[in-house]
Fold each of these.
Amino acid sequence: MNLKFKLNSGYSIPLIGLGTYQIRGNQLIYESLNYALKAGYRHIDTAVVYHNEEHIGRALKTLLPKYNLQREDIFITSKLISQVNKGEEFVEELVHKSLANLQTEYIDLYLIHWPGVSGLQVSHPENVLYRKRTWNALCKLHREGKCRSIGVSNYMVNHLRELLADCNGVKPAVNQVEWHPHLYRLELLELCRSEGIFLQAYSSLGTSVSNDLRNDPVVAEIAARLHRSPPQILLRWALQRNVGIIPKARSQAHIDENIALDFEISAEDMELLDGLKDTSGARYSWDPDTVV
């Protein structure tokens, strides 16, 4: 199962992707991508700070022919974080390095990974300036065809409104944020949808160091009733709200499990899952609300 959503850039993004955070090294990346392509994944999510772009590029060089795939058959996302005292030229250099590492002439989606700046306090007013510079550089690369779609990650309502007010003629195609039954924001979702921005979830299953989300009693009860695993319930919950997912997985079993989502959660059970935010509100990743 790998449905697609048409972005405002005109390109289509698979609703299910493979997250590669903390997956690095030629052998591990090769094995993970091999399992993923075999299972039907056609979207790979990475980032400069994951330090695995080069490994992904090398693996795809071998794996695409193995599965009779062309470059245009897959969708690649990468991301960068702005750095203090670095301008638009630096952003362009990072993107060109990503292109070289991934061994591709274009990247399907490139995101500003974080609304803050590496080297600045989250409360520093120059975060606004660097966000603008980074977006301008990505717009240039988008117009040159190097980045077919551009977007943001960890942008909250205030960050998005700021960008939309002065976006250099290019609205973000995607906003990638932490999103699961313990933490989601309807105001952010409504803003994204009203502006034609696709919302994509990360940390859909919590984190590898916390089982709280996967072990939530409500999630477990619904999973048992539907004869599915708790991760499948969490991922399907997002898909039924038309939110994209990029669950991280290394093993073939988990990679296969995370794409086997061709079932329905009833409206009553969806309401139960929606209600978990009111009793939990737990965050499992960094907090962009603190960034000015």
Amino acid sequence: MKHKFVLIFLLIAGLLQAQDKPQSYSLSLQQAIDHALQHNYSIINANRDIDAAKQKKWETTATGLPQISGSASYLNNFDFTLQGISGNAFNPSADPNTISLVAFGTKQSMNSSLTLSQLIFDGSYIVALQASKTYLKYYENAKLKTNTDIKETVINAYGNVLLAEESIAILEKNKATLSKTLADTQETYKNGLIEEENVEQLQITLASIESNLNNTRRLLDVANKMLKFTLGIDVNSDLTLTDKLDNLMLSHLDMALSQNGFDVNNNINYQIASNFQEQKSLELKLQRSKALPTLGAAVNFGYNSFANDFSFADSKQKWNKYSNLGVSLNVPIFSSFGRSAKTQQAKIAYEQAKTQLTQTEQQLKLQYEKAKSEYEFSIEEYATSKSNLNLAERIEKKQQIKFTEGLSSSFDFSEAQRQLYTAQQNYLQSMVNIINKKAALEKLTNKN
């Protein structure tokens, strides 16, 4: 029995430990984008905004539909309110100048009723229905904008992680190569064949590489956590990126993308600005509709009962039925030009929205030209950095041979190394730039 309890305890402990262990993920860039579009925190709240807007739309619609309300009231008169009556109305023989006090009503009363009301015509309600659709469309567009923003953020964050990983791999390779060169140089110095300065110069370069390597490892940790946060997963989870930087860069080489032209109507920011203009147009209609009459009707049906003792639960208690139909018409006549002032304000706001839409259109066209130029330049920059890297590798190799054979100084060799290290980082950054600049261009053109 004791062994069974131990086994059960270990099983429960294992299950709890498995539940506490962070989940592991292995994602390509596209998988990362798909995951973020479902689990990113901003995306989740954007979906909730749409749900709330749908409820708001129905709330507006319901105000013009039949409304039913019920009420019940009970009154107990501890002391009646007395009314004064002059003269002898109730007693002809009394003094006509006297005042008689009379109490009206019963000690207790109860009333219950149902009211059915219906809006028949209200110009502002018609405008409100149109506005509720625009309101919902605004949040749907806001969700699309959030999607495009998150997609670009994921691409940039994914690229930053790959850049840090590739940088670490190159720095570790450079460190290993330089460490071997330094060890050989130290042996040569011990044999008295070279000066100590050659060893010290290599030590300085190696220390710089080690510092950069440690810093890049820290940057990788930060970049990983930033990507996890954007994906909407626990920052302590294990995340493996399955795409490689060079393959990802090649898939983003698309010169035709910058040649397809730009339709501003497809841009989500333009759609939001257009939606804003429509809202201001409806606000203008709303102010104008307030000059129209409103018509409504209501039907009331109920029962009341009166007694001096509480006998309303008695089956013999008499209940009095009543019902009525009411129609109300409200016609605005004169508001001391207050409505006119509000209408003019709405008209000015509408004109401002039209100007903002034109401004947004022109800004987006400029942004497109800039993004297209930057994307094309990133491709050219990649070709240049690749060529420069090949040259820097050949120069560094030649200088290393010369340095080993004593035909070159340590300064020349270190300068060639620094030039190579810079070329390596420029090459990696140029690949990331292609990915990021294409993402920015696709965001503007709304290309999936």
